Amino acid sequence: MSCPPLFVIQPSPGKGNGVFARRDTSAGTLIFSEPALLTLDASLPARQACRSLAACFARLPAEDQDKIRSLHCPVDTVRSRRIMLELAHSDNGDDDESGTTQAGDDPGTNAGSSTHSGAGFPASKRRKRTVSASSGTSSANSRAAVPPQQQQPLTEADIAIYLAATSNGIAFLGAADGKTYTGLFPSVAARMNHTCEPNVVFAVDHNGVYHLRARRDLQAGEELLVSYLPRFMAWEARRRTLGECHGFVCGCARCVEGASRGVAGGGSAGDRGRGPAPGFVPASQIHPTFEVLEHQRASMAGIDLAELHAWIRELKSREWNLRKKNWGQEPAELFGLAYAIAEAHCGMGLVLRRPSEVESAIAYHELAARVGAKYWSETDVFVREQRGCVMALKVELRKFSGK
Ligand SMILES: [Zn+2]
């Protein structure tokens, strides 16, 4: 963590603690990096994951245990109830490989990008400081491997820790094997509150380190807010996911507007009731794939199409500024836009099985990587993250075409 830190943790009205800017900070600034305290294999069945996590937790220093115990843990959400049901179900049959627990019900989750997941759990490697929960079958590099502890019953404390981890963990793609892991970052990252209009952007790199950057200029005292969800999820999908997984209703301006539209008009989720903004560029001129994209299908993927179009317009205007060499803060913003648009295309492509959307996602991720490389460096975590997405999406494309 940088010293002196650019942030401070303090109470946020109505939300427990939050993370705040300690001083004025310009767009693109790296605010902090935090290695995962625990790294967990997202593919393990719930019960096995819970047990492995408990074993790792027991080996942590008391100070780190306290950090995890103090994490917000909503027990009355749909997700928490489902996890407890799963744990109860497999009460005697231990750790069979059936029932792969994928609790990740965030629609639009894209390959390779870090999201606040509700994924299942434990196992893994690397990170010197990281304690890794492991399925007893892992390979040589898991020196922290936990011996299988089959027959011990799970205690209430084990389950509480597991729920805290599932609520606060963040998914990322492992470098060596391309598998999905979940990192737990209890010091700072897990204290970040949510908004659907984030002023900071985060990514977890392939080694399980969380990095947070300013999306725009920040003022001292401003709360730093991330989005737990993909940016272009429509209001209805956001409301449902936040309620089911995190147990709260978001009160940001986007949600207030979404709620008023939702109450006023019928119809399905998506850009209901909102006509094209003034100066709206027809979708077909922005990107040929939109020509054939019906709003209904977008809403199936939980995408707010009007929101997406507005952002693409903004991206185009900023690209024009770039060409005119009006740099300023453009690269950081442009990166954020390209990334968000890539994420939306990705959601539509993977959910709707649309190769053309996946191709668009690849193009925008490539743009984000180019901009990022220009602004930060070739080795920046965000640049590598974008390239990782491009690689993962190309694999998906090959699957679509059956090769
Ligand atoms: Zn919101």
Largest sheet, strands/sense/barrel? 5 strands, mixed
Number of domains: 2
Mean of residue pLDDT values: 72
Q: Which stretches are low in confidence, meaning pLDDT under 50 for 5 or more residues running?
A: 93-114, 117-130, 134-146, 264-294
Ligand inventory: zinc ion
Domain SET: 5-229
Region (Disordered): 89-151
Biased composition (Low complexity): 132-145
Protein name: SET domain-containing protein
Question: What features would you describe in this structure?
Answer:
- Residues 5-229 form the SET domain.
- Residues 89-151 are annotated as: Disordered.
- InterPro entries: SET_dom, SET_dom_sf, SET_domain_protein.
- Residues 132-145 have a biased composition (Low complexity).
- This protein has twelve helices and twelve strands.
- By secondary structure, it is α+β, with helices and mostly antiparallel strands.
- The chain folds into two domains: 7-214, no CATH class; 265-400, no CATH class.
- The strands form four sheets. Strands 5-7-8-4-6 form a five-stranded mixed sheet, with helices on one face. A three-stranded antiparallel sheet has the order 3-11-10, covered by helices on one side. Strands 1-2 form a two-stranded antiparallel ribbon.
- A hairpin with a 4-residue loop joins strand 10 and strand 11.
- The chain is globular, with a radius of gyration of 21 Å.
- The N and C termini lie far apart (44 Å).
- Zinc ion (ZN) is lined by residues 195-196, 250, 252, 254-255.
- Zinc ion binds at residues 195-196, 250, 252, 254-255.
